[in-house]
Specification:
By secondary structure, the protein is mainly α. The chain has one domain: Orthogonal Bundle (MetI-like fold). Helix 11 packs antiparallel against helix 12. It is elongated.
Length: 291
Amino acid sequence: MTRALRIFRRSPTAVFGLVILLGMLLMGLLAPLLSPKSPTRQDIMSALAPPAWSAKGTWDHPLGTDHLGRDVWSRVAHGARISILVAFSATVVSALIGVLLGVIAGYFGGAVEHVILRVADLQLAFPMILLALALVAILGPSLGNLILVMGITGWMMYTRVVRALVLSLREREFVIAARAIGAGDWLILFRHIIPNVMNASLVMLTLELARMILMESSLSFLGLGVPPPTPTWGRMLSESRTYMTTAYWMITFPGIAISLTVLGMNLFGDGMRDALDPKMSRFAGKLQERQ
């Protein structure tokens, strides 16, 4: 861990990504204190008010208001809560399912491995966003359903990577020694195998967070995310389509929030990859050189 932290600190881009993520997280956690207005309170008399730096803007609404007079800054700040919560929860669900299935497939092999891999191939045959759209449409839009659907559409990558790692780990000397002294399969899995695949799993988790943010925004944009009046970045983009030319601030600031969050997660994920899994980092570097 000390070596990993030292490597991480040496990467300016990784530290910058971490700063962005911490900023977005603090914005969501402190949204009630930072935002001057309620994110759901409507005031038609103040509809489409421009940002404070514009000629007709006021500091009562620093980033302006939307078509219903709701404060854009308050909605962006409170939307960070939903977007980050959904993305993180769905990524954890995907990681738990994928790592567990990958460990079982790689360690036991045989028919169990065949079934797990074929199910993964079947799910990979469908575009993830279309599968998520179908499942959300069936189950109905809600916070819990959104996390569940996004979680079960992203476990396949974890399973394939973890399975490949376990195939080599199960033939290592410490696993053979544990089996020789009478350790059971499940004890070996949880005591020796899973701890040795956690670094790669954490790297994938940090990189998957960005994709989950985009998926949540896409589903909310299509009206299949968290039901209104809860503010989300994707719904804010959807509601602002009609006013792109007359009220640019409605679409600009949630778009910037999504872009910064995804950028921060990608930079942070690259730093985590370099710190926790040097082999994966060297492989990525060689691949970029060939390209």
